[in-house]
Design goal:
- This protein has 87 residues and is mainly α.
- The chain is built from 3 helices and no strands.
- The protein has helices at residues 5-41, 44-63, 69-84.
- Helix 1 (5-41) runs antiparallel to helix 2 (44-63) and helix 2 (44-63) runs antiparallel to helix 3 (69-84).
- The relative contact order is 0.13.
Length: 87
């Protein structure tokens, strides 16, 4: 364990940021699952609404530095492609 005050603070800050990042990632995964469930269910209107919400959450996570820009873009592209391919 750290003995220096600044090192102790860094440990606490790292824990706080880790918890925050986990919560944001979990939220994004939930929104992605909603889109995937709507696509599997075949309801295009629900899927498009879920996609809009998921894109918003992914963009928020990317702006906070939880996801790299390319990762966020890839997630959005894959979800959009899945919704667009629906009949």
């Amino acid at each position: 364990m750290a003995n220096i005050k600044s090192a102790k603070k860094r440990v606490l800050v790292a824990q706080t940021r880790t918890e925050r990042n986990k919560a944001i990632r979990s939220k994004v995964k939930t929104f992605v699952k909603k889109v995937e469930a709507a696509v599997a269910g075949g309801d295009k209107a629900v899927a498009e609404a879920a996609l809009k919400a998921a894109i918003s959450e992914i963009d928020k996570a990317q702006s906070k530095g939880v996801y790299h820009a390319n990762t966020a873009s890839r997630k959005v592209a894959r979800l959009s492609k899945a919704v667009a391919s629906m009949q």
